[in-house]
Design a protein that fits this description.
mainly alpha; Arc Repressor Mutant, subunit A; Tetracycline Repressor, domain 2
Length: 247
Amino acid sequence: MPTPPGSGGAESSGWVVTPRAYDVCVKAEQTRAPLTRERVLRAAVRIADERGIDALTMRNLGQELGVEAMSLYNHVSNKSDVLDGLVEVIVDEVLAAVEDPPPDGEWKAVLRRRILAAREVFLKHRWAPGVLESRQDMPPGLMRYYDGLLGIMLTGGVSLDLAHHAMHALGSRALGFNQELFTDDADVAPEEVAVMARQMAAFPNLVALMQVVYHDPDSTVSGCDDQFEFEFGLDLILDGLERLART
C-alpha cells in the first residue's frame, strides 16, 4: 500500500503520493469485492472480448482478477465449467435485451425485433456462438428464450405444426447468428493464397461471385454473417412463414 505523505517511506524513494491519491488507494483496498462466481465469469467475458476466447485460461483469469489460479476453483470446477458459465452470462444478456421494451404489434415484426435484439448481444461478444455450439446441455434461460419465440408465433395465429417447422428453418438465426460451416477469419499465408488462386481457376462461377461480394466487417458475427446477409435470410424465412400461416 502506498505510504502517506509525511511518513518518509514514499518520499525517501522519490515517489510522492498526494493525500487524495492515498485516500483513493485505501478506499479501493477496503471496498474490494470478494471473489464470487459472478465476478469470475464477468472477468472471463472481459478476457474473451478483449483478447479472444483462446486467451481464456485459468492462469489468465486469475491474473485478471489479481488472484492465484487455484483460488478460482472455489467458484468454478474447471475450464469447462467456466465455458458453461459464459453461456449463462450471454443468455442472460439476450433475455435482458429482448424483454426491454415489452413486445407489441404484429407478430412477425415482434419476432423480428426480438431476434435482431439477440443478435446485438452476439455482435458484442463475437466469440459467443462458438462457445454456445460447443456445449452439450441447453441452459434453462435459453429454453425460456425459445419458449418466448414460440409464444409470439402461436399468439399471432401460427399453428403448432407450422411453428415447429419454423424453428427448424430458423436454426441458429433464432438466436441472432448464422452457423458457418467454413469461415475465412484465419490469416492465410501468401504461398497458400497462390495455391488457392490456381485452384479457383477451375471454378469460374465462384470466382465471378467473389469479385462482387462484400461483407461489412463491423456488422459481422463471423465468416460471412454480416447484418445484411443475416436480415436477408431472416426476412425470407419470416415472409414465407407469414404466407403459410395465412393459408
